[in-house]
Write a structure and sequence with these properties.
Layout lengths: L9 H13 L2 H8 L3 H15 L4 E4 L2 E4 L1 H28 L5 E5 L6 H10 L5 E5 L7 H4 L5 E5 L9 E8 L1 E6 L20 E4 L4 H7 L12 E5 L2 H9 L5 E4 H6 L5 E5 L6 E7 L6 H14 L4
Parallel strand pairs: 3-4, 3-5, 8-9
Antiparallel strand pairs: 1-2, 5-12, 6-12, 7-10, 7-11
Helix pairs in contact: 1-2, 1-3, 1-4, 2-3, 5-10
GO cellular component, one term: protein-DNA complex
Organism: Streptomyces jeddahensis
InterPro entries: LysR_HTH_N, LysR_subst-bd, WH-like_DNA-bd_sf, WH_DNA-bd_sf
Length: 299
């Protein structure tokens, strides 16, 4: 007999996420303004609904099972999608037409925004920062309508992609490094240096934007993992490793104790525009055309 489909209760998902993030039923109950027994019952019921155990419960505390770790990722995405859906229908019901545009640090959104706004002067535009480790998710869950991303995007072909323009790469070095004053260097000059790791980047993305593995197939020593530019710069200053960044990112973060040196023998990465065609609106169509007409000329 086939399994009967189970409807997931968003309230139970919120309860689960609170416990998973705090790893404490008491503190989660306080944050949710519910009693601890009621919270425990709801989480137990969710586990029964799913047919899996989400938490290891011991006298020492609470930890997530492997299934719980995966479900935390999925539950966050479902909650975000639910909130995005509520926001969209409320805006439509109120007669509002807003375009939400995602962007990655350093991507050139100005030309497309100006071209779109010239034809839609009354449409508000909201900008939302996208991170390298979840470029696809805000587009798939509806948090943003269209987004500037750096290829490749791990979306299982669920997104439409318009390639836009290339970005050359620079290596980030301490200003005291012997190569810091060079006009350009080859990647082989960094062969012995540990390379900082973009947190949770897919191997395909790291291959393009951090040249790992190197063009000759070798892998440099691994340095620390970083989550943002401040962490990156801190590790580089301390001599813990080097890393490649798109040249426009280097422009955004000038520092007297940091040098950005172009790397001459790795191919550039490419910025693209991405959107979920299942939710493509007339505004998204017009924005795509604005980006196509203004940014694809930059080869």
């Amino acid at each position: 007999m086939p399994d009967v489909p189970t409807d997931l209760d968003l309230r139970k998902l919120r309860y689960f996420v609170a416990v998973a993030e705090l790893l404490h039923f008491g503190r989660a109950a306080l944050a949710l303004h519910v009693t601890q027994p009621a919270l425990s019952r709801q989480v137990r019921q969710l586990e029964r609904d799913l047919g899996v155990v989400l938490f290891n419960r011991t006298s020492q505390g609470v930890t997530l099972t492997a299934a719980g770790e995966q479900f935390l990722h999925d539950a966050r995405a479902l909650l975000a999608a639910g909130q995005a859906a509520r926001d969209r229908v409320r805006r439509i019901d109120a007669g509002e037409h807003t375009l939400t545009v995602g962007f990655m640090l350093g991507t050139d959104v100005t030309a497309a925004l100006n071209a779109f706004s010239a034809g839609h002067p009354d449409v508000p535009i909201e900008l939302v920062r996208i991170r390298w480790w979840d470029q696809a998710q805000p587009l798939l869950d509806g948090t943003v309508d269209v987004g500037f991303v750096r290829l490749p995007v791990d979306s299982d072909d669920r997104l439409d992609i318009l390639p836009l323009y290339p970005e050359r790469l620079s290596v980030v070095l301490p200003a005291r490094h012997p190569l810091a004053g060079e006009a350009g260097i080859r990647i082989t000059a960094l062969a012995d240096r540990p390379v900082l790791q973009y947190a949770d980047a897919t191997p395909a993305w790291a291959a393009v934007w951090n040249a790992v593995p190197r063009p000759d197939g070798t892998r440099p020593p691994q340095g620390p993992v970083f989550h943002d530019m401040e962490e990156l710069l801190g590790y580089v200053r301390a001599g813990r490793g080097v890393v490649l960044v798109p040249e426009p990112v280097a422009v955004v973060f000038p520092r007297p104790d940091i040098a950005y040196v172009p790397v001459t023998d790795v191919p550039p990465g490419r910025v693209a525009l991405a959107w979920d065609d299942a939710r493509r609106s007339a505004l998204v169509t017009d924005f795509v055309e604005a980006a196509r007409s203004t940014l694809r000329l930059r080869e």
